[in-house]
């Protein structure tokens, strides 16, 4: 693991305008990731994980209210790039995305091979044969037989399509891959399979991952770092090993407690209530209302506390 | 290759597609044949020429094949040219240099209807003194009727000769000459007739050839119009023109609509709003009225009209339909993915959005073709057809302005109408069947 920083995100904000007001989907996120490092972003549905992925890749919908902060990629603040520069120099060159529901992200009217080679053709202007050779290599990495390049997306199974989507994200050899829930809607065996593929890629191609998932147990195999997102903010940023042994933030603790254990004779726990609406997040700690250890200080905005290199946003550690 | 075969096989399983396809092929074959057999310039000059070129045809003649369905056969045209029968021409030279040329035109008349017109045409040459001609009509029962004795002219229209009409008691000569004497109503006398023409020439080098024509009531495959033109030319040439007009207009409008709809729905925002407003404005503008104005004030050339149709169709109502589909496509995951890997807007529009709509487009486009064919015909019927081109609409227009329906010349209106109908039916049947095949929502029902 190099300690050089690949990407660092500072105070990233992405707010959407809707009929009822402004949704603060990503509200001041900081994160830092080195080369060949994998971070798992955990969190409930609707806490802004997917929006974070989109914000990093600047795949913005039309109703953006605020989009600010810094995304420093290899020392360059790519937020300063124009849309065209960003498209040409960053997307898929430096970082690529395996979108949510990647199974449906393959164009139904293109052959899988044509689809997988598209990023190469779009960006590097290589010849079709070369692109196909590269695609074949990537198919080997993800473990899909080469002849599937000649098929259409609907002729592939869900797991195959997911792997094809991963191959597509690899085809231009970017340093960072953002995977948005790559294993949702897949059965457990296929999930394990996909994670094995990702592990292998990390070893063989030395890429970094930002892996967004709900799936705490499977992702633990891959993670170097863990980020826990709650209501548009990162409430804990921790080394994977430390996190899985003893999470710091009360929310993380609750989240971990909700995972069924194989050997422990313990009912899975659940968190009372619902995450707050991002339209109007509560003042102070956003987890206060559901937090078992909330006390009077929590009504003020909690600071981000650095506890032995582990970051946690909670008054308990102040 | 296999895919195409598969699609063709699937098409073949729809009888209406097969019938429609065969009908379209027939139209295409007719078009190709026409363009090769009657080159454009020839067709135009034939159609625009005066009666000079068509004098051998009767006016307002029905198609010859209608006789097949009649018990009383109507006469076809009897055209006797002396140059075809030189044995019937005798020349007697007299000592004073004058000549007597006798030309006989024997013919059998066994029809159940009277000819529509009678004429003798002369081809002759002289320097100073024109020849003199005497024409006699010999009936089967041996009567000899003097038709004319006068100085020679280019043509002798027996039917318009007032002296003859008076002689027959105001009965037109073409009826009087071919009827049983004193029959009322006139009965046809069938049998062997002969027209004898005796010409006296006064110069040594003068020669005269005569041609006798008893115009029938039926002619050709398609019949003739008020200018004696064979309708077949216009019917044949109408096919490629109609197909070209329909195809180009349909291609032009659908492709333009599709691209505009794709661009609008992809970029959204003010551009989409603007496109939508323009479409709404165009939708309320009556296109036919605009085309009539263009035809009246600017030009009636078919290309100007075609261009106007396409220009008016660029922002046609189809954009709304396409937009509805594009709005859905735009949100699909694979478009998001394409954006993520940095595909440019153009690439997304042309290789992601548009291919999605093609299956829906093909049947719609085929069904659209006849509507433009009808539009062109409608304009022609309104008198705004291209003045130089023979088209189906022009035939109907001619028929209308010459009172075809009042006078019972139904063939004149029915023939082009039948072809228009045939075209409409062909493309519709094909289009609806293709819709079944290509449109996933109708599949397998």
Summarize this entry quickly.
By secondary structure, chain A is α/β, with parallel strands linked by helices. Helix content of chain A is 29%, strand content 25%.
Present the secondary structure layout:
The complex is a heterodimer of chains A (318) and B (445).
Chain A: E1 5-18, E2 21-34, E3 38-42, H1 49-56, E4 64-73, E5 76-77, H2 83-89, E6 95-98, H3 112-123, H4 128-142, H5 158-170, E7 176-180, H6 188-205, E8 208-212, H7 216-219, E9 225-230, E10 233-239, H8 240-245, H9 250-257, E11 304-307, E12 310-313
Helix pairs in contact in A: 3-4, 3-5, 4-5
Chain B: H1 2-12, H2 15-37, H3 40-48, E1 78-81, E2 89-93, E3 99-109, E4 117-124, E5 132-138, E6 144-151, E7 155-157, H4 162-167, H5 173-176, E8 191-201, E9 208-215, H6 231-267, H7 269-284, H8 287-298, H9 302-314, H10 318-330, H11 333-340, H12 345-384, H13 392-401, H14 410-438
Antiparallel strand pairs in B: 1-9, 2-3, 3-8, 4-7, 4-9, 5-6, 5-8
Structure in words:
The complex is a heterodimer of chains A (318) and B (445). Chain A is an alpha/beta fold. Chain A folds into two domains: 188 residues, Rossmann fold; 72 residues, no CATH class. Chain A is 29% helix and 25% strand. Chain A is built from nine helices and twelve strands. In chain A, the strands form two sheets. In chain A, strands 6-7-8-3-9-10-12-11 form an eight-stranded mixed beta sheet, with helices on both faces. Chain A has a four-stranded antiparallel beta sheet with strand order 2-1-4-5. Chain A is globular. The model of chain A has no long low-confidence stretch (mean pLDDT 86). Chain B is α+β, with helices and mostly antiparallel strands and 445 residues long. Chain B folds into two domains: 260 residues, MetI-like fold; 152 residues, Sandwich (Jelly Rolls). Chain B is 52% helix and 15% strand. A five-stranded antiparallel beta sheet of chain B has the order 2-3-8-5-6, with no helix packed on it. In chain B, strands 1-9-4-7 form a four-stranded antiparallel beta sheet, with no helix packed on it. In chain B, strand 2 and strand 3 form a beta hairpin. In chain B, helix 8 packs across helix 12 and helix 13 packs antiparallel against helix 14. The radius of gyration of chain B is 31 Å and the shape is elongated. Chain B starts with a helix and ends in a 7-residue tail after the last helix. The interface between A and B is medium-sized, with 30 and 19 residues.
